Amino acid sequence: MTKSTVKLFSQLKKGLKHLEEKASTPLCLWDKCGKLFESIDELYNHVLFTHIAIENTSSQLFPRYACQWEGCKHAKYRSRNLLKAHLRQHTGRQEDVLFSHLLADQAKALNVPPQQMWWHPSVLRWCLKQHGRSASGYEEMRRSGILRLPSGRTLIRYRNFSHPETGWHDGTLSVMRSTFDKFLSCGKGRADRSHIGGLYFDEVKIKEGLVWDPRTDELIGFVDFGNDECPLGEEPSYLSLHNQVATHVMHFHFRSLFSPFYFPCAFFLTRSVKSTNNLHSMFWSGIKALHEWGFDVALACSDGAAVNRSLFKIDSGVEEGEVPSFTANPYTGNPLFYVSDPTHLVEKTTE
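Given the sequence above, the corresponding structure tokens read:
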């Protein structure tokens, strides 16, 4: 083994160890907080809502937001959004976990016959997204030899196995993508802009009783904010509410801004969402999942519920008394505008 190869594996081992430490011990080191969480995204949401959101700079003429993470020597930032982007350097990203799983599967695939290969679920979900965007592009990447990936036939078996469940799911978004592709092939929209749209969300009250699913022998109607198929990975801690009977359904649907395309893409069984933290996780999980399947959200629309107003206010980073109008979509780099629709007029006119 040459020196350059030894150096390469040494750097790879060091980098993977660093990623594993962040993923296995999501510890808050903000101003000696010291709280431990179950996932990277729970840690990120904790710092965002518990520490950054309450920082008061209203008395300053030119406010500055300082990172108080242990050992951080970065200068202060001029806006909360810049500080939120910087925060990921400390908390890590859920994508880092996927990278480590992908590397582990690459090493395994070099020594295991394709018929006996068992792929990690997160790798399969990523492959499903790429195959859903472009089957020919995926096959070209697989045959190039750059990465060892499951065949298209293997992915089709996984895709056809899914059925609608609460939360953001690749099975549902795969159907959404194929429906959108058929929509374009019929000449009903332009491919360069029809994928840009708004994410509309609303909570409705459940009027009837529970429903039994004969495939799983389960009652459908318990509080459930998602499961391990959520694009963000780990289950949030508030899933301990699963044993309570749901009274409401929070539903999300996507509408193109430049064509008639519309698709209901996710729902969550709840007991009325009153926590901004819970809604924040639902909302941004969806923005990310839709982007990964080729849909970009430029507008978010909801009624005037207090939890919705709080979500918009925190994400936009406005000061007390200001009205939030937009924030940055981190997955597109473009603005994401907020529309408050208390009387549901916008939703009715787009139906």
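Residues 221-243 have pLDDT under 50 and may be disordered. Try to locate this feature in the token string yourself.
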